[in-house]
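Incident review: delayed structure delivery

Summary: a single-chain prediction request sat in the queue longer than the usual turnaround. Root cause was a stuck worker, restarted by the on-call engineer. No data loss occurred. The affected request and its eventual output are reproduced below so the record is complete for anyone auditing the incident later.

Affected input:
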Amino acid sequence: MKHEDGFHFLEYPCKSGKPETLIVLLHGYGNHPEMFKELPEGFQKEFPNADVLIVRGPEPVGASAEHKKDLGVPGVDDLYSWYKVQNDAGKNLELALSHLFNRVPVVDQLNKFADAQLKKRGLKDENLVLYGFSLGGGIVVQMGTRRKEKCAAVICHSGPVFPIIKPKSKPDTMILMGDQDYFFYTRTAQIKNPQGKCPLKAPKRKLRNAFDKAIGEIGVHYDDSKRRLERAGIEATGELVKGMGHTINEESFNKTVKYLAKKLKK
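Output delivered after worker restart:
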């Protein structure tokens, strides 16, 4: 595994050595790049001049040997996430708010990584594809909308779209999810304000109550996510895959490739 520009990643260079596209892939919470190592071959079969990078999250989750074995990666050192979830309710509320206001700290670091990797290959944003699974899907949407220039495409696979605040660019985005996804299709996540405490110094009770209500719930259902993209003025393509759970299958991958073929051609 390589380490450059602040992140560890698996690199799959195109055979020609002259990439025309860069695909940056982010995994989900408690995953590892090794779990997705079959995807680059599939992408390069359709896009032979694409370099594929599977980036590892910076925060280890302390996974047990049994859990790593269950996920099919018994030999990895740990599983990883994009930020640390703590036992402190106040810190977790700050993390929730960073989602609400499109300010997850790791996003800017990942964009710097993407910029550096594009520069090394002599490529531009129009050659960049951001692909994320589960939580990684939510992260790539924030990456794309916080980049100054519009990238070629964003793929949010089995992931939530958090509120999009003042997007700097509006990349064409595909949100793809299974109708049996037990994380993000069949339920709505609730982010509660612990003990009714507002982390901001609101001088008036009315303002505090309004703030509490605003952060009370963030829907992560497929329909909520697609609607957020559309409200932000983003060209959103939605695909709900029948019978698929919280995973990537052949049908969903084929839909992704078909979508990217149009965007990269354009």
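Verification: Residues 189-204, 210-216 have pLDDT under 50 and may be disordered.
Action items: add queue-age alerting; document worker restart procedure.
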